[in-house]
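Troubleshooting log. The previous run stalled partway through. Resubmitting the same two chains, unchanged.
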Amino acid sequence: MLDLTHKRDRRQIVAFGGGGFSMERGNPLLDDYVVGLTGKVRPRVCFLPTASGDADHYVVRFYSEFATRADASHLTMFRRDRSVSDVRRHLLAQDLIYVGGGSLVSLLGVWRAHGIDQILRDAWERGIVLCGPSAGALCWFSDAITAYYSGPERVDGMGFLPWSFTAHYDSEPERRDQFHRLINAGMRPGFAADDGAAVHFIGPRLHAVLSSREGAGAVALRRGNDGVVEDRLETRYLGAKSKEVLATPPRTAPVAA
Amino acid sequence: MTGRPQTSRIAALGGHEFRTQPEELAIARHLLALTAAKRPRVCLLPTASGDPRDGITSFYSVMDRFDCEPSHISLFRLERERVDLAGHLLSQDLIYVAGGSMLNLIAIWQAHAIDRILRQAWERGILLAGQSAGAMCWFEQGITASAGKPRAAPGLGFLPGGLSVHYGRDPDRRQAFLREVANGFPGGYALDDGAGLVFEGRRPIDAFAGRRGARVVRVEADGQQAVELPLHPIPLRRELLWQPDASIAEMRGLHHRRLASGRRR
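Second attempt completed without errors. Output:
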């Protein structure tokens, strides 16, 4: 039976396994993709650097990337006396909310204390695109596999997406082992994304897998009859067009090598 | 870890910075002396301001002047550091909590279960200290501007009552505290920048001032009103005022050696 409900779903989340302006200097492919989803020429983009403790250098990098192409702002949770007075109104007026990486546990602690989690849920339901790398990706899921002082652990995320998730899948092998262990132990099925790969959800459903470099991708994990089943997902490399141009031999080059 | 008293102690500071001004150094020195350890192990928790690099750097540059073992724990960069939080914190003589957002401080500590480790540290006689949000966090309530305008927010409640900081400098906080106390908020203490109050168990035993005129005020409800009862903090000696800076001493030494070798030539 043809299910069209998800096509009318306005709720969008793009979770990066790693990448974007903070991790991939000079490679704007993932950032271009999320900006494109807003459908606006000059979207309103708000950066939440909470997971880094509102690190100044991170905020500066955000503005240097977004100030020219968007109506950019950021929200500090550590100097609220010097920040926007109506956080809710500010967030709900955005086209894209970009959550920075850092400590997931600290991020969730602060957001819950300020009621940001509820505001973000409302933003999501209104069709404001939500995205981010690392902790900024993990936070949206029900089960987040994060690595902090005691090694990879499962943390309750905000649960907008009813899946498990982990980031940096290709660069931190201990996350894979832990993910498999947890899936075997009955954790809900989910996804894992490499650095430079992103999973795009419309509503609770996976819509597409994108990557900013060739070879980066994502997998779906679930418990099968004989242990964990890990399926590599079809990934669209966002730089494919420019790659074709590069692949065309320059005129001066010898025809045969 | 020598000669640590078994009593639980907390030193609350109304406003203190890791800087080389004599009044700021006097406070750091006083805290180290309170540990009674020969070479105190001191851990900074800069959580309330998001573990900023400059704050951590100034802590080390000041602590390097004293005979102590400084360290810090960043709860925002744990992913790379992987420390044994409980093991590290419980081996300290002094845990110093920096200022920032009290609301965030408590929320982040609870998320990482640091609040439980700190209670253990307190019970074991490790001196807990802090300034601003790092002072209010130990009380039942603090007056914080974490969510914008100053208002009451719950702390860890190791100490009874409320605390207000930067008292003389921030009239909005003072008004908020007096209003809250008049409305039934538990009474407590107010500290100016440069003032400190030491608690043994839940009782205050020592009020001190690193800066001349810094006040320690008891705030209590009297009927429908809040009254301010000033205490008499002991001024801290500023011995470091006339002691040469370590780097200057080193430069002078170098200069003398150069002169000496020049003479020889």
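Takeaways: The interface with chain B takes residues 51-56, 77-81, 85, 102-103, 105-106, 108-110, 112-114, 146-151 of chain A (CB under 8 Å). The CA atoms of residues 73 and 240 of chain A lie 31 Å apart.
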